[in-house]
Design a protein that fits this description.
With about 450 residues, the protein is an alpha/beta fold. Helices cover about 45% and strands about 15% of the residues. The protein has two domains: about 5-190, Rossmann fold, CATH 3.40.50; about 210-370, Rossmann fold, CATH 3.40.50. It has helices at about 5-15, 20-30, 35-40, 40-45, 50, 100-115, 140-150, 170-185, 210-220, 240-250, 275-285, 295, 330-335, 350-360, 370, 375-390, 395-420, 425-445, and strands spanning about 55-65, 70-85, 90-95, 125-130, 160-165, 230-235, 255, 260, 265, 300-305, 315-320, 340-345, 365. The two termini are about 25 Å apart.
Length: about 450
C-alpha cells in the first residue's frame, strides 16, 4: 500500500471505528492502487481518496408498521448515496436482520467500482433495513414496504438514485415498493429496477447476477483454452444468484453439486438437474422453506448441518451467499481439494486471508465487483429500456449481458497486465473502476 493510501486507511479506521466491513472493503481497494497513485500524482494533489471514502449522502430513518396481530413494529431504514461522478446512484436494497450502517457503506463503496466496470453510466449506492421478510405474511411485507418507501421516495428518482433488489428483496418486495412510489409521486418511471416484466421490467433481470457470474467464469476459463464443460461446481446460497448460477452452469455443461442457506449445506453428487432446480425455486421463492428439505425430495443428496460447501471436492466454486463466507481455512480447503476457479456471485464473500491464498496460487479468481456485475448491468439495461419506453427481447438482453461480462473481463485483465500483475483480476478491477470514477471527479471540480 502506498504512503498516501496508508494515510487514508488510517483515516477510515479512525472515523469509522464500528464499521469493520466498510474498512475491509476500502482496504481491499487501496491495496491495489499503489501503482496508479504513483503514476498519477494528480489524484493525491486533488484529494481524490479523501473524497472517495466519504459518502455524498447518508439517509437513515425509522420505519413504523403494524403486524397482523395489530402490534406496532419499528425498524431502521437506510440509503447510502455514495458517489454520483459517472451517473445517478445505483444499487440494491437489502432487507435482513444483519443490516446496519457499516454493512451498507461497504456494499455502496463496492458498488461504485462495480458499476464503473459495467461500461454503463451509473454511480454507487446501497440501502435497506434490518427488517426480516422471512416468516412474515404478504400483508406484513406489504405494510413494511409501503412505510419504507413513504420515506425513501423523497431521495430517489430515475435521474437521481435508482434502487433495485438484493438479499431479502425479490419480486414481491419490489412490486410493493414500486406501487407505493407510484402512488405517492403520481408517476410511472424507472425509479426502481427489478420490476415485473409486464410492468416495466426487463427480461433476464432476475437471472442476471447468476448468469453474469457464470459468463465471467467462462471467460476466465477460455483465457486458458478451457470451458465449463464437465466441471464440478460448488455453489453457496440458495437464493436468486445461486439458483441462476446453477441454471447457467448446467446449460454450459458443468455440474453443480451444492446449495446452502444460513443453517447448512446440501450435497448432491448426482448434480442439481433442471428438475431439481425447479424444486429449489419453488421451495425458496414460493414456500420460503429451508434448503434441508431438498434431501426429503431427493434422498441421494445429503444435508450437512452448520457447514458451508467449501469442503466438497470441486473444480469451480461460486460463493453466492453473503460477505466473508470463505475464510483463509476455507480457501486452503478448496485449493487442496483441487478447486482452480473461484467466481464471486456475492459481494466480498472471501475474506483477506482467502483472497491472499487465491492470488498466491494464481488460480482463476474473479472478484465480486467484476464477476457479479451482471445484475446491476441488466438493471442499467432496464433503465435504458424504461427511458425509451420499449422492451428488448430476451435474446437481445442476454446478448448484451454476455458482451458486458466479456468487456469487464477483458478490461480488468488488460489493466492487470498494464500494471505488471498479469492474472491479478483483483488489482485489475480496482484500478479500472477507480481510474474511471477518479477522472470523472477531477473533471467535475471540487464537489
Amino acid at each position: 500500500m502506498s504512503s498516501y493510501a496508508s494515510r487514508i486507511m488510517d483515516l477510515v479506521v479512525k472515523r469509522n471505528p464500528a464499521e469493520p466491513e466498510f474498512a475491509q472493503a476500502v482496504k481491499e481497494v487501496l491495496d491495489s492502487l499503489g501503482p496508479v497513485l504513483e503514476r498519477h500524482p494528480k489524484y493525491e494533489k486533488h484529494l481524490i481518496l479523501e473524497r472517495l471514502i466519504e459518502p455524498e449522502r447518508v439517509v437513515m430513518f425509522r420505519v413504523p408498521w403494524t403486524d397482523e396481530q395489530g402490534n406496532d413494529r419499528i425498524n431502521r431504514g437506510f440509503r447510502i448515496e455514495f458517489n454520483s461522478a459517472i451517473g445517478p446512484y445505483k444499487g440494491g436494497l437489502r432487507f435482513h436482520p444483519t443490516v446496519h450502517l457499516g454493512v451498507l457503506k461497504f456494499l455502496a463503496f463496492e458498488q461504485i467500482f462495480k458499476n464503473a466496470l459495467t461500461t454503463l453510466p451509473m454511480g454507487g449506492g446501497k440501502g435497506g433495513s434490518d427488517f426480516d421478510p422471512k416468516g412474515k405474511s404478504d400483508v406484513e411485507v406489504m405494510r413494511f414496504c409501503q412505510s419504507f418507501m413513504t420515506e425513501l421516495q423523497r431521495y430517489i428518482g430515475d435521474n437521481v438514485d435508482v434502487p433495485a433488489g438484493d438479499i431479502g428483496v425479490g419480486g414481491r418486495e419490489i412490486g410493493f415498493l414500486f406501487g407505493q412510489y407510484k402512488r405517492i409521486r403520481n408517476e410511472f418511471s424507472g425509479a426502481i429496477t427489478g420490476k415485473g416484466f409486464n410492468w416495466g421490467g426487463s427480461y433476464i433481470r432476475p437471472e442476471a447476477t447468476g448468469y453474469g457470474a457464470t459468463y465471467f467464469a467462462q471467460n476466465m476459463l477460455e483465457s486458458r483454452g478451457d470451458s465449463l464443460q464437465g466441471k464440478i461446481c460448488t455453489v453457496s446460497g440458495s437464493g436468486n444468484v445461486a439458483q441462476y448460477t446453477v441454471e447457467k452452469v448446467t446449460q454450459l455443461g458443468g455440474k453443480c453439486v451444492s446449495l446452502s442457506d444460513s443453517n447448512g449445506t446440501i450435497y448432491d453428487p448426482d448434480g442439481i438437474s433442471e428438475e431439481k432446480l425447479h424444486y429449489v425455486m419453488e421451495l425458496k421463492n414460493v414456500r420460503r422453506g429451508r434448503i434441508r428439505e431438498y434431501v426429503e425430495a431427493f434422498p441421494t443428496a445429503v444435508y450437512k448441518e452448520g457447514v458451508r460447501p467449501w469442503g466438497i471436492r470441486c473444480d469451480c466454486a461460486f460463493p453466492s451467499a453473503t460477505q466473508n463466507e470463505i475464510n483463509g481455512e476455507d480457501a486452503k480447503m478448496l485449493l487442496d481439494n483441487g478447486c482452480f476457479v473461484v467466481t464471486e456471485g456475492a459481494n466480498m464473500p472471501t475474506d483477506p486471508d482467502g483472497v491472499r491464498l487465491f492470488l498466491e496460487r494464481k488460480i482463476l479468481y474473479g472478484p465480486g465487483k467484476a464477476a457479479n456485475a451482471g445484475g446491476v448491468a441488466v438493471s442499467g439495461l432496464e433503465m435504458a429500456q424504461n427511458a425509451q419506453h420499449i422492451y428488448w427481447p430476451r435474446e437481445e438482453v442476454d446478448r448484451r449481458l454476455q458482451e458486458i461480462m466479456r468487456a469487464i473481463y477483458t478490461s480488468v485483465s488488460d489493466t492487470a497486465k498494464e500494471y505488471g500483475c498479469p492474472g491479478n483480476l483483483v488489482m485489475g478491477a480496482n484500478i479500472t473502476g477507480f481510474v474511471k470514477v477518479a477522472n470523472a471527479m477531477l473533471d467535475q471540480g471540487l464537489v
